[in-house]
Design a protein that fits this description.
Distance between the termini: 27 Å
Largest sheet: 5 strands, mixed
Strand order of the largest sheet: 1-2-11-10-9
Order of helices and strands: EEEEEEHEEHEEE
Protein name: IPIL1 protein
Number of strands: 11
Radius of gyration: 20 Å
Length: about 150
């Protein structure tokens, strides 16, 4: 959605997160029902790839050798707390990625990007040569029922 507020155009973008290969997202159940959207937990489940024809790609769940430990999932290491997606970690990662990418775009040298503090979304303010400002808020979501 978008709206105009004084001298600022505000965009709100819903970003659906998709699990990387060999992972799936599962909505945590509480008492047999889904938790309210605001405080729901999304569990990251490592999928077994042993029975699939995956070539040399290791299975995160089962090591190929009995004494070998399973490789660590980068998703679990960087964007999760325990086995659950951590929206604060995701927001921080996206904010850092946007800031780094912005610095590599010479065509935007007349515009200034300010990443606004937010622990549950990624909010950015673009200020340019005109008086108009652009504000974008990326809100993260997981599509229910997706693999």
């Amino acid at each position: 959605s978008w709206s105009v507020f004084e001298d600022r155009i505000v965009y709100q973008l819903l970003v659906f997160l998709q699990p990387p290969s060999r992972h799936s997202f599962r909505l945590e159940l509480y008492g047999g029902t889904h938790l309210p959207e605001r405080c729901s937990n999304v569990r990251v489940v490592l999928e077994c790839t042993c029975s699939r024809n995956t070539g040399n790609i290791p299975c995160f769940v089962h090591p190929s050798e009995p004494r070998e430990t399973a490789p660590h999932s980068p998703l679990l290491q960087n964007l999760c707390t325990g086995s659950y997606l951590d929206v604060e970690e995701i927001a921080c990662w996206v904010q850092n990625s946007v800031q780094t990418a912005w610095e590599l775009l010479p065509q935007w040298q007349d515009w200034q990007l300010t990443v606004l503090p937010s622990s549950h979304s990624c909010r950015m303010l673009l200020s340019g040569p005109s008086e108009m400002q652009l504000c974008a808020a990326l809100v993260f979501a997981v599509e229910q029922g997706s693999p």
